[in-house]
Amino acid sequence: MSTVYLVGAGPGDPKLLTRRAYELITTAEIIVYDALVSPRIIELIPPTTRLYNVGKRYGAHSMKQPEINALLVELASEDVKKIVRLKGGDPFVFAHGGEEMQVLREAGIRYEIVPGITAGLAAPAYFDIPVTHRAVSRSFTCLTAHSESGELPDFDWTALAKLGGTLIFYMGVRQIASISQALIEAGCDASTPAALVSRGTTPQQTLLARTLGEFTDAEEDFTAYTPALFVIGEVIRLNEGSTSRPLTGKKIIVTRARHQASSLQEALEAEGAEALLLPTIELSTNQEVATEVSSCLRELYRYGWIFFTSPNAVEFFFAALREAGLDSRALAPCRIASLGPMTSASLLSRGIQPDFMPSAYHAKAFAAEFIQHSSKCEAKPILLPASALAHDDLPRLLEEAGYPCHRLPLYTNNPIHYEQEELRATLSSADYLTACSSSAVHHLVELLEAYQLTELLHELPIAVLGEQTAEAVRSYGIEPQLIAPQATITALVDSLIESLR
Ligand code: SAH
User: Fold this and answer.
1) Active site residue: 82, 87, 101, 171, which one?
2) Average of pLDDT values for 282-289?
3) Paired residues of 482 in beta bridges
4) 489 lies in some domain
5) Choosing from 56, 251, 364, 380, which is the catalytic residue?
6) Range of the domain at 255
7) Residue 119 CA: which ligand 1 atom is closest?
8) Cα–Cα distance between 153 and 131 in angstroms, integer?
9) What confidence category does residue 69 fall into, taking pLDDT thresholds of 50, 70 and 90?
10) Residue 56 is a catalytic residue
11) 269 & 389 share domain
12) Is 357 an active-site residue?
């Protein structure tokens, strides 16, 4: 017998999903969802799940409520265990959850309610606005400004004005002027703080804070802000001097390859920024050397050291090991060097503690410190798994000092195609561009050159990770605005916050 779960997906930020919601959306056979559920949450659903988008947008209902009710009942008669009915925010707050529950109950279908975080509380909170605050607001009232007729709902406005707490209007972007007028007529001071909180808890969130009196212009159109809440009350003042999510409203370009972008993207988004993903290259296994790689991996005892110069090198190396039917034990005869903390973290996650890491994370320091660290009598060569396009600096410096090196070109970088307009739009809308490797810089410039768009790069502040990446930027006559003091994502994001403050 099927169970239908009425699940709240929260206000947008996937991190605000409850554990129960996450468990259900990743294990259900069928999911029926609304337009309000954020795309980032839909991405978490396994590709094998059967999806129904019954998306309802203000003014354009794509499926009527009775049809959705009927669909749920019909799906529950199928031979499936879990059906998730996924709604934005909380399923019982202005979301027809109660109605769907009654329909299921009447049809004798098993159901469970999974509450979610409602937008009315979460969206203000992401702007440091608490809905209650000692001595400022002793209540919060959630209301819907929507009515069948399109008129303002028939509230007791005098009672609302007298409450003196926080008022939170859902579905109200078309009614903002009439709500403001009604409250002022009912006795609210025109100087009462009021705010339009749009797309709360997503990277596109915005806050338009004014006074009630400044929202009374019926000509003003706020429909572009949907979904948005209209919030009224003294608590809005607490947003002034906000110190959390310091990158709110900032758009930051991430040029890392897609499979690597997530850690930087997440770190930026946690600070409120919108990460614009602009990967310039895609990495793929270098098929041309497949046999060489496989025989090399079987004979690792021939090498004294393996030098990993990037997390990519680690990833492709271990993928090649797996492919060859080997595992990390194959590395036992060798010592391991890592160029920086991210590469080390990548090694550690595979159970390997690097034996050597230089104090500065570039080829020169790597070679110089390694030569100091090791004894010349190590006759065995150094294995350097890397990209087919990797810099030759490191092997050259090592060879010059008498250390034989063997480069293993494990993977190749393939450029990604963009339309000219797409590139121009992304670059001109951004506040910063980040680059974490010299190859990302070179590929980006190549891409821009093809469309004669390199000028855009001179107008955009650039933040880089590491001296080597900085050098790559300088080679085009551009001085990076910011070089992260350490080659870590945290350091990069912290310096961006400092720089944009
Ligand atoms: N069940 C949902 C509300 C659905 S009604 C909940 O509990 O949050 C739809 C209204 O919710 C929208 O018109 C808007 O007023 C509000 N809303 C939903 N998500 C929002 C968000 N991320 N930011 C601001 N308002 C949001």
Assistant:
1) 171
2) 90
3) 463
4) yes
5) 56
6) 251-280+416-499
7) 8
8) 22
9) very high
10) yes
11) no
12) no
